[in-house]
Amino acid sequence: MDDVVRFELPTFEDIEAFCDRLRPRWPGWSLYDEPAWLFTADLSGAADELPTLLREAQDLVAELGLSAISFWLDDRVYILEATRRDSIAPVAPAASV
Questions:
Q1: Is 70's pLDDT higher than 90?
Q2: Which string of DSSP letters, residue by residue, matches 39-54?
C-alpha cells in the first residue's frame, strides 16, 4: 500500500468535500468504517505528488474547520494539522510613488 494515502474524516460532509477537491487528481475510494469515514488517494508515483496532496488536504482541513485529522501512509499513522492562517506572513503594502 505504499502508493495509497488513507485519510480518516469525522463526517460524510467532510468526505464529500475531499471528493470534490481531491478526487479529480487522485483516484481512490471512500467508505464508512465506524466511527469514522475513510478517504483514500492513489498516488501515481510522481516525486512531488505526495507533498502536493498533503498540502491540499491540509488546506481543506482548515476550510472544513477541523483542527487535525489522521492519515495512514506506509503502514504508519500520522497527524495532519490544519493550515494555520495566522502563520502566513502579511503582504507588505506597496510603496507610494
A1: yes
A2: EEEE----TTHHHHHH
